[in-house]
Amino acid sequence: MSLLSALEGATLPSAYKEMSIEEMEQRVRGIKNQLGKRLFILGHHYQKDEVYQFADAVGDSLQLAQIASTNREAEFIVFCGVHFMAETANILASPSQTVILPDMRAGCSMADMANIEQTERAWDHLTDLFGDTMIPLTYVNSTAAIKAFVGEHGGATVTSSNAASIVKWAFTQKERIVFLPDQHLGRNTAFDLGIPLEHMAIWDPIQNELLFDGQLEDVKVILWKGHCSVHENFTVHNVQEIRKTAPDMNIIVHPECTREVVALSDYAGSTKYIIETIANAPAGSKWAIGTEMNLVKRIISQYPNKEIVSLNPFMCPCLTMNRIDLPHLLWALDSIVEGNPINTIRVSQDIAIGALKALNKMLEVK
């Protein structure tokens, strides 16, 4: 396995469930002061505020990858995100640094939609069809093993912030790209770069088949049949409701949404793009945001002079990201102080070497 825990399967001790919020917050602050620069807490924008408030650096997946690749001072990196992010941090960190995920149950349903066995089988099948004309790309929302496969085959990782740049680069390398595991980000990015939808095929890893109606020589993009369970819940109906009830409201969505939703929206871009667009918008402007609810709520609280709503009023936060909470954060920090860190992330060296190739390629491409 590429992701290992010192105490895999360990559950939160009951004592943490009995503490008040005030006590836990006070103890987290105390440990941060005690450990000083030996400790570095990273927080993804989708985290709960109870955790987000303690992060030493926050960002989207690209920003956090860049931060993890440059910080060499901290002895312990506590990653408040999900497992693929912690894996990435471990790959980019120095051997002397320990990466901790406060709750090992914090996974990603999208990353789970592509495993290495499926990917190797797909590559063999597609090579039979297309020969040596393909280069693989993988969204960072993927396992270290998938990143390693992509790296060993000359490809790169991508984030929603740099997908266009990486896809452009990939087409200078090969005639076709295979995009894992999020079909929507791949489709939206390729479409924006001028590739017609009729030149995009879908690989179904469950049925182990290529879904395409035209001539094979016309295929330019092969999209893995995966998706984000949060962003796929923003629908055309949601857009139509906003247009009907608030026609003067701007609609901005994440490119993990479906092509149909992105096409009907006013703006589409990464988490960083969404945050910056709202921040730079004039007072009094109106926005419906199609992304994760914790982030939407935070943006609403930050800009009371703007009218902001979720594009889907019934949207829930990312459930796996929400596994990281204040009790688990404190538990992780206590374990460091006690000299027995829990939930440490270790990517095996053979996988890390290939994954680092893909990550470094992403960080190199401008």
Describe this entry's structure for a reader.
With 366 residues, the chain is α/β, with parallel strands linked by helices. The protein has 3 domains: 14-107 and 320-348, 3-Layer(aba) Sandwich (Rossmann fold); 111-228, Rossmann fold, CATH 3.40.50.10800; 231-310, Rossmann fold (3-Layer(aba) Sandwich). Helix content is 42%, strand content 16%. It is built from 15 helices and 15 strands. It has a 6-stranded mixed sheet, sandwiched between helices. Helix 7 (144-152) crosses helix 15. The longest helix has 16 residues, at 349-364. The radius of gyration is 21 Å and the shape is globular. 48% of the residues are buried. The model is unreliable at 1-8 (pLDDT under 50).
Q: Please write the string of helix (H) and strand (E) elements.
A: HHEHEHEHEHEHEHEHEEEHEHEHEHEHEH
CATH topology annotation of the largest domain: Rossmann fold
Low-confidence parts, pLDDT < 50 over ≥5 residues?
1-8
Strand count, sense and barrel status of the largest sheet are:
6 strands, mixed
CATH homology superfamily name of the largest domain: NadA-like
- Rg on CA atoms, Å: 21 Å
N- and C-termini, Cα separation: 32 Å
Find the count of extended strands (DSSP E, 2+ residues).
Answer: 15
Average pLDDT level: 91
Overall outline = globular
Helix segment tally: 15
Order of neighbouring strands in the sheet with most strands:
6-5-7-10-8-9
Supply the helix-strand structural class. Answer: alpha/beta
Strand content: 15-25%
Domain count:
3
CATH architecture of the largest domain: 3-Layer(aba) Sandwich
Helix content: 40-55%
CATH C-level class of the largest domain: Alpha Beta
